[in-house]
Each structure stands twice: as structure tokens, then as C-alpha cells.
Write a structure and sequence with these properties.
585 residues, alpha/beta
Length: 585
């Protein structure tokens, strides 16, 4: 089954088929059954609930595309909600970058002029009231065990837990302690509020999970108003219910948490806080991408140890990193649609992501000429003062986009690999005369046919310049060009007006496809060739490139003007990806 959908209003606007998956089947079944018909509310409301404690990565992009995509495709809405219940690790910087990343991917949490932007901290008063209800109704208690005793009494997968000696505290006593916790009378860890469920449950998440802990920490939104904070597993389902979420979509690691999700909402329905229908949680497999790590701790280590230049380093899998690398929001959406949504974990090869990028950029990116590893080419019989205009299509498949123009003169830059003093078998580019055999002829792309006559070397025997002669009647686009049949066709730039630019050749950060698996030390698997910086020469029109402008450098791949380091008239370019997969087996 395939549903034709309209992408959102952001930069990813396009029409594309939406691939069916188990989540779409659930949503469609619910719509047919009228499961969430509520006055004044859409029948589908999803949410993307990040914790503002770091930068989003490519795995989060899958969740963003999934949650916002479901809402978009079924005439619903998606909320952006920050799970800001851990004040020691959260910061406004992360809130800002997350919002920016969601917008860049092409999605919006606004509908009909209303911003559906929420914070768990918006609900602290409501969550506290629900916690007091659980205490009063006998479903929660304040535990005063030490953290070590609590952990020991929790048991393990083969042994049931042991009830806390404080489990049977009278509700009035627990309520008094809880209110004193809120008033700041106790130190961190001195008491904790736990749900009262079943210490013998085979599901460890139901063994009287913690729902409130003491944290004397400044919160980025509520300041010092609170010194107790709700736990994620308590906050998340109740926030969903407060916001009337219909389909709460999580990754598979939360599957064992779903019984507690349901338990919390059911108890609060009994207390009159919510009415049916209530949210339901569904789990899907997270994105596992080869040659990538997504652990925040390990990504932070790369940043703090200066392995990369920052969170937005183009080698990083963060959304700010892949954006700076030159990926497009359309390519990320295409990738997330193509890999699908399943209930079982698997690995997606990085080449799939690169393939989606090439597919998106090929019809869009204007072409340009760049010489990355330069070698001087001197056309000895070309008039010294002559500068002859040449033209090339801006895009070979879109003639309506016009032509770009550049000059050819006596001295050019070519790629070092386009000359061999002693050619190998099948080499059709420039090489000098060998005995009675004349030097090889090649066509200078969009220019003239030239014949190699020799080369200059330095004192160490390195070739520093190549000499040739040109045939004046061989210019591309003229009648005479048909008289010359050559096998080699090389690109070049004019040395007199070429743009000298820094070009950063980025590659995968790790040499191992699974650098974070099997107990490997990911720091020993870093790719020493993940970044090479070269001084390149580009056709002069590239001086006009603006930050985030993307091009195909003919023969080399796709490049983007760096959004941080480029300045007017002097862009810095990042290689986004090569023209073909160089890692294929």
C-alpha cells in the first residue's frame, strides 16, 4: 500500500509516496474505528519529545520525520515537547539547536497559527498534584533507603525484589515527607518517591519505580522554584495525556517501559485527571547506521578531546554536523522514508544515506570546475596575451538554466593525476613523447585539443609543469572540433583568474562499520583520512558562492560552501560526498 502525500511547508516541500508500515496501519485502523474522535481536536496527535541535554543526531532525524510525518499525512498535528526534568544536564543552548534542527528538516509544530511547543516543566504543578493523588490513594510512597540498599533490594532478572521497609508507610506520613521534600528540607538522595506496584514483577520497570527525586539544582526555565523533579517514566505518559497525544511513538528500548506508561495513566484516569480515550505507546526500531556512533557520551568525548572541531564538525552525525557537511533536508527525509519503520533492529549501510543525497543533489546542483591537486599546464604555442572565452552548461540536463563562462589562456591548472611521465597501460591522459611516438593528445574539457610535448622538474625530480601545444581549430563547439578524435578529456582552470580556495575533503569518521559494537574501543577505529585540507583552484564564477550553496565539482563529487567559515568572495568548500560510493566492496 502506498499513500500519496504532500510534504510540509519547509525546505523539504515535495510530493512523494509514503511507504506503508505497521504504524501507518495502526493509525489507519484507529481512524476507521473513530478511536480518537474528540471535540475540537485532530484524530491524530503525535509528539517529538527530546531532552535538551545535547545536540540531536541522525537517529533523532528518523524520529522527527516519523512523528511529524504521521501527523502531516493524516491531517493531524505534532507537538515539540522538551523533556526538561533533569536540570543538571539541560541548557537553553540545546533547546535552541533542537528547535532549529526540526525547522531545518522541514517541519513545524505550528498549526492554524497556534504553536504547539511544550515543556515538561510546564506541567510541574500538575505532575506534583498527580503524585500527591497517588500517595493518598495508596499507589505511591516515600522511600528513605539509601541508594545502595534500594539497588540491592531491587533484585535482578533471576531474583525478585525485596519490599522496602518503608513501603507500608501510611499515606499521611508519605505525603508529609513528600511535601517537606518539595519545601527543600532534605538533601539530595535522602528520600525518593516510588510507585507501589510489584517488587516481584518479572518486568524490572514495575518494581516500585522511582517517580520523584530530590535535586537541588537550578532549572533553565523554572529557576530555583523546585528542588524535586519528576522522573522521565512518570513525566512522559502524563505529559502525553495532558496534551491529548493519540499515538506515542518511541524506540524499542522503551518497550519494557510501556506497562508502567499504561499504569500511570490508568491510575490518573481513576483519579479523574483524564478521560478516555488516552494515549497509547508504540515502539519502532531505532536507526543503526554503519560507520557512525550516536552515544551522546561518546560524541561528547570526540568534542572534548578535540578529535573533531565541535558538535557541528562535518564528520559528526549530529544534525548540525550533517547540515554543515552539506546534506539537504530533502535527502534526510528521503532516507528516512526509504529505510522504513520496523519492529526489529537492523543495520542500515551508510551508503544508503549517501545514495539519497546524490539522488537529491544530482538534478539540483549546478556544475563547476575545480582542480584539487594542481599541476601547471603550459600551452607553449598559445598567444601569451590571448584570453579566449569558453562556455559550459550550468547543468547538463537542464539547458534552460543557461551557461557559465570562463577563459582559457596560455597557463592553466590541471590535476596531477592527469599527467604521467611513463604512462601505464590504458592511460589516455597526458604523457610526453616516448622515442618516435608523439606525446598524447587530450581534449581540454570545453576547450581545445592539446598534445603533450614534455615537462619540467625540480631538483628532486618532481614534475612541476607540463608543456603542450594546442590545435587552434579544435575548440569545442566549433566545426573543426569534429576533426579531432581523442580518448582523453581532462578538466582545467585558468591560472590567471582562478579562485584559490580552501577545500576540505571529508570522509567517514571511522574505518570500522560497527565502531560501537562488541566491546570495541571506538577511539582506536578513527579514520586518519577523515579530513584532508587542500588548496584548490576553482573557476572564477565560484567567487559568488554563498554559505550553504551546493555544487557538483565535475569529476570530484558534491561540495558545499561552508556555512561557518565562508566569507564574501572567499568561500571555503566542504566535500559532501563523492560521485560514487568509494567504500563499496
Amino acid at each position: 500500500m502506498s499513500t500519496e502525500i504532500k510534504k510540509g511547508n519547509g525546505p523539504a516541500a515535495a510530493t512523494a509516496p509514503a511507504t506503508s508500515n505497521f504504524l501507518r496501519a495502526i493509525v489507519e485502523t484507529d481512524l476507521q474505528a473513530g478511536a480518537y474522535q474528540r471535540s475540537g481536536l485532530p484524530n491524530v496527535i503525535t509528539r517529538f519529545p527530546p531532552e535538551p541535554n545535547g545536540y540531536l543526531h541522525i537517529g533523532h532525524a528518523k524520529s522527527i520525520c516519523l512523528n511529524f510525518g504521521l501527523a502531516r499525512d493524516y491531517a493531524g498535528r505534532c507537538h515539540l515537547r522538551f523533556d526538561d526534568t533533569n536540570p543538571e544536564k539541560e541548557d537553553q543552548e540545546y533547546v535552541d539547536t533542537i528547535m532549529d534542527s526540526v525547522k531545518w528538516l522541514g517541519f513545524s509544530w505550528a498549526q492554524d497559527g497556534i504553536e504547539h511547543l511544550h515543556y515538561a516543566s510546564d506541567y510541574f504543578d500538575q505532575l506534583y498534584s498527580m503524585a500527591e493523588y497517588l500517595i493518598n490513594s495508596g499507589h505511591a510512597y516515600v522511600d528513605s533507603q539509601s541508594a545502595a540498599d534500594m539497588a540491592a533490594n531491587r533484585g535482578d532478572f533471576g531474583k525478585p525484589g525485596v519490599n522496602s521497609p518503608f513501603r507500608d508507610r501510611a499515606p499521611a506520613e508519605s505525603l508529609d515527607l513528600f511535601r517537606r521534600m518539595k519545601a527543600g528540607e532534605f538533601k539530595d538522595g535522602e528520600h525518593i518517591l516510588r510507585a507501589k506496584i510489584d517488587m516481584a514483577s518479572p518486568n524490572m520497570n514495575l518494581r516500585d519505580p522511582a517517580i520523584y527525586r530530590i535535586r537541588h539544582a537550578h532549572h533553565h526555565r523554572t529557576g530555583d522554584t523546585w528542588c524535586i523533579y519528576p522522573m522521565y517514566d512518570f513525566t512522559h505518559p502524563l505529559s502525553d495525556a495532558i496534551e491529548h497525544i493519540t499515538h506515542s511513538v518511541c524506540t524499542l528500548e522503551f518497550q519494557d517501559h510501556r506497562p508502567f506508561y499504561d499504569w500511570v495513566i490508568e491510575r490518573c484516569v481513576e483519579g479523574g485527571f483524564f478521560q478516555q480515550p488516552v494515549p497509547h505507546q508504540y515502539e519502532f526500531a531505532r536507526l543503526n547506521l554503519t560507520y557512525v556512533i550516536t552515544s551522546k557520551r561518546k560524541l561528547r568525548q570526540l568534542v572534548e578531546e578535540n578529535i573533531v572541531s565541535g558538535w557541528d564538525d562535518p564528520r559528526m552525525p549530529t544534525i548540525v554536523g550533517i547540515r554543515r557537511r552539506g546534506y539537504t533536508p530533502e535527502s534526510i527525509q528521503l532516507f528516512c522514508e526509504r529505510i522504513g519503520v520496523t519492529k526489529s533492529d537492523g543495520w542500515i549501510d551508510y551508503s544508503t544515506l549517501e545514495g539519497c543525497l546524490r539522488e537529491d543533489l544530482d538534478p539540483k546542483a549546478p556544475r563547476a570546475t575545480a582542480v584539487l591537486r594542481s599541476l601547471k599546464l603550459i600551452i607553449d604555442n598559445f598567444p601569451e596575451q590571448l584570453s579566449d572565452a569558453c562556455t559550459a552548461p550550468i547543468h547538463p540536463h537542464h539547458p534552460e538554466r543557461g551557461l557559465r563562462q570562463f577563459n582559457i589562456s596560455r597557463e592553466l591548472w590541471i590535476e596531477q593525476e592527469d599527467f604521467m611521465e611513463v604512462p601505464s597501460k590504458g592511460y589516455f591522459r597526458l604523457y610526453p613523447p616516448i622515442g618516435d611516438i608523439a606525446g598524447n593528445k587530450v581534449r581540454l574539457r570545453y576547450g581545445y585539443v592539446v598534445e603533450c610535448t614534455g615537462c619540467d622538474k625540480d631538483e628532486n625530480g618532481n614534475v612541476i609543469a607540463v608543456h603542450c601545444n594546442y590545435f587552434a581549430d579544435s575548440k569545442s563547439g566549433t566545426e573543426g572540433s569534429a576533426n579531432y578524435k581523442v580518448k582523453g578529456n581532462i578538466h582545467w582552470v585558468n591560472s590567471h583568474d582562478a579562485l584559490e580556495a580552501e577545500v576540505r575533503l571529508y570522509d567517514r569518521l571511522f574505518t570500522d562499520a560497527n565502531p560501537d559494537a562488541g566491546g570495541k574501543d571506538f577511539m582506536t577505529l578513527l579514520n586518519p583520512n577523515a579530513l584532508e585540507v587542500v588548496k584548490a583552484y576553482l573557476e572564477p564564477g565560484m567567487k559568488q558562492a554563498q554559505p550553504d550553496d551546493r555544487y557538483q565539482f565535475e569529476r570530484h563529487g558534491y561540495f558545499v560552501a561552508d556555512r561557518v567559515d565562508s566569507v564574501a568572495g572567499k568561500p571555503v568548500f566542504n566535500r559532501v560526498t563523492t560521485l560514487k560510493d568509494s567504500w563499496g566492496k
